[in-house]
Amino acid sequence: MTTIAIRVKPGASRTRVGGSHDGPHGPALVIAVGAPPVDGRATEAALRALADALGVRPGTLRLKAGAASRDKLVWVDDPPADLPDRVAALRGAGR
To answer: What is the Cα–Cα distance from 74 to 31, expressed in whole angstroms?
Structure first.
């Protein structure tokens, strides 16, 4: 199991995964979603976008911390061997 720090930006004009944010959990991958921060909708949209960007099944991602925060920790069950490289590439994409 691997943990990824993410920073969710709800209410965006389009969904985008890329860039880095120095958050409370260390360098976080930025995920912009169109969903509002109501009833966990932005979190759900962010997890779907993250799964798509990483090329993993959505069911392999679980929220570990940060349900009511923009800064979250996500568990990845049975991660692919190159997951750290995929995350690093996405973090650098917004620069």
So the answer is: 12
Q: Are 7 and 32 in contact (CB under 8 A)?
A: no
Q: Rounded to whole angstroms, how far apart are CA atoms 68 and 90?
A: 24
Cα 28 to Cα 5, 38, 39, 71, 72: the distances in Å are 5, 22, 23, 8, 9
Is pLDDT above 60 for 72?
A: yes
Q: What's the CATH code of the domain at 78? A: 3.30.1200.10
Number of domains in the chain: 1
Whether the model pTM is above 0.70: yes
